[in-house]
Every structure is written in structure tokens, then in C-alpha cells.
Amino acid sequence: MDFVLLCLTASHKTASFDMLERLSRTPDDVAPNLLRLTSCVQGAVVLSTCNRFEAYVEVDEPVTAAGAVGVEAVLEAIEQSTGIPTAELDGAYEVHSGRRVAEHLFAVASGLESVVPGEGEIAGQVRRALTAAREDGTTSPELERLFQRASQAQRKVKNVTALGRAGRSLVRLSLELADSRIADWSAERVLLVGTGAYAAVTLATLRERGAVDISVHSPSGRAELFADKHGITAVADADYARVASRSTLLITCTNAAEEPVLGPEHLQAPSAPVAIGCPVHAPSTHARSQLVIDLGMPRNVDPAVAQLEGVALLDLETIRLHAPLEELQATDAARTIVRDAADTFNVLGDRQSVTPAVVAFRSHIFALMEAEIERARARGDEDGRVEQAMRHLAGVLTHTPTTRAHELAAEGRGAEFVAALETIYGITPAADDANDVHAATA
Q1: Is 7 a catalytic residue?
Q2: Checking CA distances to 146, which of 26, 175, 191, 285 falls within 20 to 30 Å?
Q3: CB burial readout 348-369, b (16+ within 10 A) else e
Q4: What is the spatial distance between Cα 300 and Cα 259, in angstroms, rounded to a whole number?
């Protein structure tokens, strides 16, 4: 049975910001739906980030049909989960199959395909995608091997090249863009909306720049815990609009809600006494100037806030337009590492794919040998010379075909060995044996 890897990817390179936002609303449902829809799909892992939506699938259809069957299944699962008709996705995605899948994922995990080359968040997102698939029971042995090797390739890129140092994360880039509006970071009244991984990175980056007056609000109710852990002020729901209207820098980075968590109604909140425990900000005596940075996907901020007087909105789409040019030397070195890692992954996978056939061939030859040895013993091979000669001959006979099988597999021609084995010896590896070896060596 042929196991084929497939990747359907929609990213900032192929899809609009609005389309990526719609795809990111319910990514957790896609993989389970995919396995329910199509029996030939053995596993699925979905990677959903600010700038990409990708489904990695293992299909057990013949190679000639795997691409069409897999893509159709993924598109149907996306439509069921997100409500986006398949026709609307035309032109918004690319498909990688077979040997190209590993190189693509390894490049993604290493930050080579990110808006900001070398950004660090993607590596954790790739690991979390595999963890989520494990929890949902949608992963497979080959997808496990693929994502584990992706993390290994990412670590090597990080350790060997300067890509990570040259590249800048979305958080850092957004704050660098904010530098032109902020003269003194220590004077900013900052409100952070969100308590996830991006929030922690954002907080650390703010402190590096000198920000000290920082509050946090959580739409999911985790503000107190986050604030206690990081030594900042928590903002309760009842005080959110008041604090938002008095903050000079607001950064949203939450995935806790599908609808915007910051809108004109929050920034135009009327003045009122500040509750005990909330940050006390004296009303400004000059024209209000607020910068809102939206790092959320789906977007956290109602675009209408940009129409308010004195309010500037910086969202992911704008940040993307200001992404720096790639550091060519670091990128070239990183891509070499990625290609080598992908080649190794594919060679090992191809060798594993012929293992059941090699085992079946060797078992056949050694079974014939044992039968002949028994006949020799029955005829009086008392000194064991015939047995010794037979065992030597069996080893010689199996050596070259076994070596050739792995050479063909490394060239992507393992199916030729399997076909020859069936034609010459009438040997067909059992499907169960193939699956056992596939799982054991993944």
C-alpha cells in the first residue's frame, strides 16, 4: 500500500489577509472532519498561524490518485469547518505532494516562509500543531516523523545560521514601526489585550524598550493570573473601556474571541472615577493620541477605530508591507540545511517503504535454504559442510538485491523493486506487514 504525504497551503504569499482571517476562525475542526470524510486519509495535522493555513495529510491511495483525492478531501473539510465554499479558495492555495512536503514544512518551521524571515514564533506553532493533532487523535506515524524532523531542522538552522538573529519577529517589527511615533517608551500608558504566548513575547519586548506603565486585559478572564506572574496590572471587564480610552498604546494579541475585542466604543468611553486596583491615569490635557497595534488572527480590532480622531491602527496587513528584505547569506545557508534535511527524511522514508518487500524477499530465500538444509541433513550431511555452504550462498544471493532495493528507494524508485519481486518470485508483501514496519520505523 502506498502512503503519500500531501500539503495544502494558503499563506500571505497566495491568499488575501481577509481569506487567511476566515480560514483561521475554526482550524481545530478541519483535521477531525477530514478523517471522518475520507477513509483513505490516514492522518492530518493542521497548522494555522497569523499568515498561513496549512493541512498536512497522509493518504493511502495510489500515487496517481493521491493528490486529487487528498486535495478534494481537504477542501471539503475546510468548507464544513469554516463555511468557505471551495470555489472561493481557487487561487488562494498551493499544493505540495510527495518529496516536496518535507522541504516545505522544514522551511516553514525554520521561518524561511514567514512574513519576517527567521521569526521565532513559527517553530512553537509547528510543535503545537502536532500536539493538537495527537490530542485529537488525527496524527499518523509518518506525520509524526515529518513534524519531529521539522523541529530538528529548525533547531539546526537556528544554531548554525544567522537567520534567527537577522530575522525579526512580528512583535519586534511592529514595535520598531511604532518607534517613529513614540519619543519616550517609559511615558507610554500601555494596555495589552491577551494573555497567550504572543502576549508574553510582547510584554518582554515592551520592557526591553523601556515601557513600565503596562496593564493587561483578558477576554477569557485570565488577566489576574498573567498580571501576577509578570508583575503588571490586571484590568477587569468593568474597567476595560475606561482604561482603553486613557491608554496611549494598545496592543491586542488574543485568539480567545472570534469577534473584535476592541472597537470605537472602547476608545470613546466617557471619563469616570477609576476603581480601586485599576491603573490611575490622569486625563490628558492635550489632544488625544493613541496607537493601536493589532496582532490578532482573526483580527482583534474593529477597523473602524482607525477613523477616530487621533487614533492610528497598525495591523498585520500593514506590518507585512514593512517586512524587511531577506538576509541573503543567512537565508541561503538555511535553505541548504533545509534541503539536506528534507533529502535525508525522504531517503529514510523511501528505504522504509521497501523494507516489507526486502523482508519478504529475504524470508523467502532463507525459507528455501532451510528446506534444502533439512534435505541435506536427511541425506547424511554429518559434518555440516553442505549447511555451511548453503548459508553462505543464501547470504550472497540476498546481498545484492537488498542493496539494490535501498539504492532504488533512495532514488524514489522503490516501487520498481516491489514490482520485480512480484514478477520474478510471485512475492507480494502483506499489507499488515507493511503497515507494521511503517509504524515501527516512523
Answers
A1: no
A2: 26
A3: bbbbbbbbbbbebbbeebeeeb
A4: 7
Q: CB of 191 within 8 A of CB of 251?
A: yes
Helices 141-160 and 328-378: crossing angle, nearest 10°? 140
Tens of pLDDT, residues 219-246: 989 999 999 999 999 999 999 999 999 9
pLDDT digits (tens, 9 = 90+) for 17-45: 889 888 987 778 899 999 988 878 889 99
Q: Mapping DSSP to helix (H, G, I), strand (E, B) and coil, where does residue 100 land?
A: helix
Alpha helical stretches, state H, 56-189: 63-82, 99-109, 121-136, 141-160, 163-166, 170-178
Q: At residue 298, what is the residue type?
A: P
Amino acid of residue 297: M
DSSP codes of every residue in 222-274: -HHHHHHHHT-EE--GGGHHHHHHH-SEEEE---S-SS-SB-HHHHTPPP-PP
CB-facing half-sphere around the CA of 130: CA atoms within 13 A: 19
Q: For residue 391, is it left (φ>0), alpha (ψ between -120 and 50) or beta?
A: alpha
Task: Give the separation between CA 282 and CA 189, rounded to whole angstroms.
Answer: 11
Active-site position among 7, 40, 50, 278: 50
